[in-house]
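U., I forgot to send this yesterday:
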Amino acid sequence: MRRREFIDGVLDSISDKYDIYHNYWFGGRKFVIYAYCYNHNNKFASTMNESSKLWEAKSYEHLFFINDDNLSLEDYEDLKKFAIDQIEPHFVRADGNKPINHHLYTYITFIVITRNRPQIEVEKAIRNLRWHKSYAFFTRGYCKLRFVCVTPKEFNIIVNDNAPEIKEYLNRVILRKKNYED
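Result:
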């Protein structure tokens, strides 16, 4: 399976819930795809006015797709630093000190699509990534960094501990494409 086919398979399945931008630039970096999802939930006591609102929760997910022939340890560390130093402050806290009111969670997800499988030390680094951040002792929610490395031609998916459901989902995408080709 080629990388383009893999990306098309993912985009076909998420296009109903995500806003998708191609060739997205942020912080001097180009992402092949940037996908954004926002969920807003609330519960009212009796009527639909603001004074009777019992609770409200806002959830966000940001997916950044990157094509890379060979993901090196330096590339991985650079992406991790970029997420923590630039993406989290901008996309979660709007360049301020804290997230917006009623923020429940934000997932920042890198999906790196490689031509060649990464080396063992890169795989270990990805699997050992456990970055998360809480805001005001979780009263303002939390943020998790999820990292995924996919080598479609080898049907290989590496994820960190924050992303097990993404691995299951991407396995279904790859298998669906593989079965379609057979």
